[in-house]
Amino acid sequence: MRRSGSELEWADHHVTIRGHQFYDQYEGSGGTAIDFIKKYYDASFPDAVQMLLGQSVAASPIEPRQREREPFALPPKNENMRRVYAYLLKQRCIDRAVLDHFAHKHLIYESVDYHNAVFVGVDDNGTPKHAHKRSTASQGSWRAKQTGSQAAYAFHHIGESNTIYAFEAPIDLLSFISMYQKDWQQHSYVALCGVSSEPIMYQLSGER
Fold first, then answer.
1. Which domain holds residue 13?
2. Which of 3, 29, 88, 139 is deepest in the core (most CB within 10 A)?
3. With 0-12 CB in 10 A as exposed, 13-18 as middle and 19+ as buried, what is 163?
4. Domains of the chain: total
């Protein structure tokens, strides 16, 4: 494990740990310390409790499972972006020109089902590989990634300069650009869409 700010990262399993809670970045689920022991040490509930109390023989974590990647498909698009524009412009104070830029490139749109804001991540060929969904409801803060998303391609803009900015969420990225618009397209910006380091590490690896 390695420390990342206030969290621990278990890279082999795509898991982050904060306090007594863990979150599996691949599966999009998490739980308590007992859930962690049961899941990654293949232990029963009584054994997990004993391990946490230091009353059982130490066990080794199971090897990461070979997971079949679920197919990726973007959420169906709504015929307009009224709710997304209203939410991002009025509630989140994103600059219209910045929003227009990403919308015209089809990197931000509105889903047809729940009218969520969808932030699209593409590969070097412009093929969508990742989608981060954010509720536009005034009383909600729901967010999730689309099933089958590949973390390395999370929402981003890549410029020609050697400067790259990393953000936790797409809206943070858009807010920063809105505040510092001078020559912004020359630089690179990456949203981690959580706490995964894969998006920024991919952009820095030179594998693009």
1. 2-52
2. 88
3. exposed
4. 2
